[in-house]
Amino acid sequence: TGHTHREGNIGLVRTMIKIKRGDIFKSGGSYKPGLCDHLEQWDGFQQKYGDVFTVYLGPRPVVIICGTEAIREALVDQAEVFSGRAKIAVVDPVVQGHGVVFANGERWKALRRFSLATMRDFGMGKRSVEERIQEEAQCLVEELRKSQGALQDPVFYFHSITANIICSIVFGKRFDYRDPQFLRLLELLFQSFVLISSLSQPGLRGFLKHFPGSHRQIYKNLQEVNVFIDRSVEKHRETLDPSAPRDFIDCYLLRMEKDKSDPRSQFDHRNLIMSALSLFFAGTETTSTTLRYGFLLMLKYPHIAERVLKEIDRVIGSDRPPALDDRAQMPYTDAVIHEIQRFADLLPIGVPHMVTKDTHFRGYILPKGTEVYPILSSALHDSRYFEKPDDFNPAHFLDANGAVKKNDAFMPFSIGKRICLGEGITRTELFLFFTTILQNFSVASPVAPEDIDLTPQESGVGNVPPKYQIRFLPRQRG
């Protein structure tokens, strides 16, 4: 789809992506050739041109940063400068720079401070986040028992539990797994994530509005979710008790009221809707997709699953549900979960950043407003940090004594000022859901482990695991 050459006096790679009208209509209307096309190409570019180079997306230059050290230098050492958020073409018509994930400048800073404080203090009311996750995990156990070991697609279950956690935090309620409205929301979120993941180019904009394709369906889906959020906000307004906020929306409405006389306040209705959408979408899809990859990997590597089961039985037993405090005594299980996140490589190219002012970086000048893509996949598969980066190997996160070891290349949530807002909640969910399921069920597949294919169903902006069938078999205890 293009060619590369050096620009001698700058020393950056220029990858010219040529857009042809015929290409746009391939694969059901989505534009395939582009930034994410064949992610393994980044290895070749990195080896040939270094950790920093430029690609052209149409007429627009984008700086690509590869490798653990370079990404850390940008997002941590120059955190403020690289904290801008570039637009993502397929969602920008919906968010338009609003909400905590896609905002910039003072708007982003105010919304992020508020969101972090609200979610961190979310012992709001009677239950902590951990307790909510434990309760949801037990609801899942009851639901899986009803399946009586039947073969099934796990998507529905993992979506339901992760969506219910974020619903309880944002909307103050959980849904029954068969609730029609809940099922519709899950369908919209899942379809949108698959469509976004299928796009090989998140940044091409301007021309998209002139063509049919999956971006139109994404727009329709997210607008329908926004209608649900808007109705929920109105119900919250009608029932708000300032002395007893129930959830994120209540806290936001109270902040809106407090700031109503401040013309500079960022706490308006539009930012509330878009923040709730961002939290709902990200909080559901990232964790559920990681769990789907995790259990596929347990089917592929039963000896690893068996070792996790033994650690669960030794530390937790069968008489009580798993608790977050157990994690410190379960290094192997913790390492397995880390390795699932690394191997799943959920957002290979990260979420696009933008520099907030002219800056020097590794000998280059990046003008204010330059878009930057930190290729998280290049860190998660960095051979300098992981002995066998293409293999699933929990030992990547264990030291010689079997204790969990920190690894600077582990950045599935990104790093720096734009690190995922829900990192703490997600890590808690992954541990509690993963261990609760395996405490109560062994897993089985009709496909022999050696024949299980781990190739993503979609690999573009996101990695979507392949579809698979699984049995959850109640564990027989002696």
How are the SSEs placed, and which strands pair?
Blueprint: E1 2-6, E2 13-17, H1 21-24, H2 41-49, E3 52-57, E4 60-65, H3 68-77, E5 84-85, H4 92-95, H5 105-120, H6 129-146, H7 155-170, H8 180-198, H9 214-239, H10 248-258, H11 269-300, H12 302-315, H13 331-344, E6 353-354, E7 359-361, E8 364-366, E9 371-374, H14 376-380, H15 423-440, E10 441-444, E11 458-459, E12 463-464, E13 471-474
Parallel strand pairs: 2-3, 4-9
Antiparallel strand pairs: 1-2, 3-4, 5-6, 6-9, 7-8, 10-13, 11-12
Polypeptide structure, described:
With 478 residues, this protein is of the alpha+beta class. It has one domain: Cytochrome p450 (Orthogonal Bundle), CATH 1.10.630. 45% of the residues lie in helices and 10% in strands. The strands form 4 sheets. The chain has a 7-stranded mixed beta sheet. It has a two-stranded antiparallel ribbon with strand order 7-8. Helix 6 packs antiparallel against helix 7, helix 6 (129-146) runs parallel beside helix 15 and helix 11 (269-300) packs parallel to helix 15. The protein is globular. 44% of the residues are buried. Belongs to the cytochrome P450 family. It comes from Capra hircus (Goat). Its cofactor is heme.
